[in-house]
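Following the same procedure, backbone shapes were mapped to integers, as reproduced here:
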Amino acid sequence: PPNVTGRLHMGHALNNSLQDVLVRFYRMKGLETLWQPGTDHAGIATQAVVEKNLESKGINKVSLGREKFINEVWKWKEESGGIILDQLKKLGCSCDWSRTRFTMDKDLSHAVTKVFVDLYNKKLIYKDKKLINWDTHLQTAISDLEVVQKDVQSQLFYIDYQIENSDKKITIATTRPETMMGDTAIAVNPKDERYINLIGKNVNIPIVKRTIKIISDRYADPDQGSGAVKITPAHDFNDYNVGKRNKLEIINIFEKNGKINKNGIKEFIGLDRFEARKLLVRQLKENGNLVKIVTIKNKVPYGDRSNTIIEPLLTEQWFVNAKKLSKKPIEIVNKGKTTFFPNNWSKTFFQWMKNIEPWCISRQIWWGHRIPAWYDENNNIFVAENEKNAFILAKKKNKNKEFKLKQETDVLDTWFSSALWPFATLGWPNKTKELSKFYPTSVLVTGFDIIFFWVARMLMMGNHFNKHTPFNKVYVHALVRDEKGQKMSKSKGNVIDPLELINEYGADSLRFTLISMASPGRDVKLSKERV
């Protein structure tokens, strides 16, 4: 379902025109069809819109408090949350508008809670302290899929670390010198002859004035940089694994807003991470520890919503055991019970499903489905459909002792609820006539960019909670690009607004143009002239 914050763009126009063709075709053949419209509450995006609106009136989210802020979001949703649906009507979509759904409708929210509790009781949802992708601007965890790896020009800093009680030095190379404050080892490859005799020796971290050990680990690549790697387990996913293997200390040097915390060097505390980098490099230069700076091209992780650089951060989060939930969908697609069209997209699906990581589902925001977990004073967790049931569980645990319960403040990742869309919108967990008639659904029409986000997760949830897979066919359409084949973006100024074309030439002209150009697997190169 499109985001409640959304406005109709060319991707929506193509996607919904294709669905309309299919549904009208089968309806005209005399089959009973259901094309059910709706919108997604889009946690992070919607919260950002409402926050901005309030800030323009001089109102701060925090001073407003959680409950009042959520009331403001609902008010905004009532006023402007239906714009995209009105625009789909303008496009001529023949949905059953009487059955319009929203992911935060009461019964859909009930389904979300039920799914969470069931998966938790089956140990498929759990809480864990792990290194996750942290957005310092939005101050929330985000999943791997919401991280965009961008090719950028970076600087690689070669820095000398002094070996203790010796005049020898070991040189490391890093793109993030500020994380030196959290170093807990230097790793060299066990086969790297340059460093074999240094393994086990102590070195001093320059400026930080702390000693760490040189360890041997296969992660260090003799052909990269200097072959010696500083290990900062709290701020890098690879380093975290090295740290676990070698039982290293984990020192987190960042606050949630990306500023240096009390574990950093005294004069750096409170500085932004990039300010700290500049200052540290200057000091390393003055002290003679900076060997050289080389300009390189590398991949840097950015948040797809905030466009800020993502920090790996060690925090407690809720996870779904996606590995276990992916087994059934893999089998279903293998057996052809759900097929992709064009078929080559099944390769992409398998590749991702077979290398799947735990799915981080908690978000540190206010708008969304609040996680149905309660804590007592001893931090025992009670997961239940409501506070009353959580209280009964807590009573058993605490025998006759007095206790107070506090609800989890995190909300669920938006994709968690949209994963239930095919069956929750038909009345599940109740046995409704719509559910028995229209589930499993016939076809899902979608862009290839959300095969992981949405298609795979609907297959996971649909197959786990129902006897049948949620849809038999997945029709994957291409991207709509400009006439030169470039991706449309506001920054390039090449966005074509479907509503403008509808006003100028009528909806049918636009729909016919898009559909006639949508041959499988080929991007649609759209120009005004074609319409």
In short: The first strand starts at residue 38 and ends at 39. DSSP finds 17 helices and 23 strands in the chain. The first helix runs from residue 10 to 28.
